[in-house]
Design a protein that fits this description.
The chain has 229 residues and is of the alpha/beta class. Helices cover 35% and strands 16% of the residues.
């Protein structure tokens, strides 16, 4: 992808656990309607035995292939590999943590919840038993069910691997709190949002890219154009 004819940053969209790049389709469409450049990745830990650092490698590879400045939008678990990878990518102008894990060096997802950590994590974390209310409570029912059918098991190693870099310490960051999130509670989001330079809020549940893509696209447009300073 090149930046010719468009000086605005590209947007790299990084999905969360159990998901894939498919979940960004409505938001990508809304962003393209506003003449915004978008890229997505498929994290290998969703469906394969891969961990944080393999995921971060995929993100970093995508960043190196984008010509020009980039705003990275990380959702949920996707915040962890983005935090690792963006520290090594000089073209990242900003990280947007969309109801995402904004962790620090030495931290991991299990530790965030105070959960026990296996010595040698193997296998997969199955798709949650009732993903529609957890992830898609405000998404139209038929679309929510279709999304739930596309979820895949998540590698347990991705939840226990620890960060060795924290890009938000040197790269400007914005946190978007989803106010009715049933997957990542608001109190958890707000605690992590304290690490960001700016914070926005959006109504609804965990997946605004499916439930309100036009509203989210407008917000990301303002953030990506430097409205956050």
């Amino acid at each position: 992808m090149t930046g010719e004819g468009n000086s605005r940053p590209a947007l790299l969209l990084v999905h969360g656990a159990w998901h894939g790049s498919w979940c960004w389709a409505p938001l990508s469409s809304a962003l393209r309607a506003e003449d915004r450049r978008t890229e997505t990745v498929d994290l290998p830990s969703a469906g394969r035995e891969a961990g944080l650092h393999e995921d971060a490698g995929v993100v970093l590879d995508a960043l190196t292939r984008i010509d020009g400045p980039v705003v990275v939008v990380a959702h949920s678990y996707g915040g962890i590999p983005v935090t690792q990878a963006a520290a090594e990518a000089p073209n990242v102008e900003r990280i947007v943590y969309l109801s995402a894990f904004q962790l620090d060096v030495g931290e991991n997802l299990l530790g965030h919840y105070g959960a026990p950590e296996p010595d040698e994590p193997q296998g997969f974390e199955p798709v949650p038993g009732d993903p529609v209310p957890m992830f898609y409570g405000d998404v139209p029912r038929s679309e929510a069910r279709a999304a739930a059918r596309r979820l895949v098991p998540q590698s347990r190693r991705s939840f226990s691997d620890r960060l060795t870099r924290a890009a938000w310490r040197s790269v400007p960051s914005t946190y978007v709190v989803c106010e009715d999130d049933r997957a990542l509670p608001t109190r958890n989001q707000e605690a992590m949002a304290a690490r960001s330079g700016t914070v926005h809020r959006i109504a609804g549940g965990h997946s605004p890219f499916l439930s309100r893509p036009a509203e989210l696209a407008a917000l990301l447009g303002r953030i990506g154009l430097g409205a956050d300073g």
